[in-house]
User: What shape does this take?
Amino acid sequence: MNPKLDKVLSLPNYQKLLLLLLVCSVIFGLFWLVVYQPMGKELDRLQRQKGGLERKLAEDRRIADNLPKFRAEYEKLEKQLEVALRELPNKKEISSLLVGISSLAKNTGLEVVEFKPSAPVPQGFYAQVPVSLRLKGSFHEIAMFSYHVGNMTRIVNLSNLRMGNAKVEDGRNLLSVECKATTFQFIDTPVDKAKTGKRKGRK
Assistant: This one.
């Protein structure tokens, strides 16, 4: 028989028990370090990954459920943008719009004494286009002109309305009117007011 084994077998029982416990502890320690601990870390990683995938799946489902709503909102915004662009003419269309305002005044019976457009005033993605007007006609014609301007497809605001010099011509009670018509022009590149001010200051 193996002398080393004989030596172990000849030990007292309590020493054999201690030796057995030591061997079991070493085996358990090796199992913990080599097998259980790496498996535990891998299990934690997989559980975290599972949690992340479940959250992503829930978010994807929420987006999928709301997709018709998002699509409807997008289509609504597209229509609103289309309406806004239709109400804000671009540079090429502004001339015809101004001619339309002048023609509208004449068609309502007013005499256009002065029609003086000013330079556009940039306001970001759009610009104000003010027009100084001097008109002559009856109160009814002035009221009709204001009404039709307010119902144009393009946005035109009348302000600074001043009436005076009432007189009778050919049996008609006529008034002289001064006002400012302001329309709005869409511009492709918004103007930075701060930069514009700096450039003016440098000059």
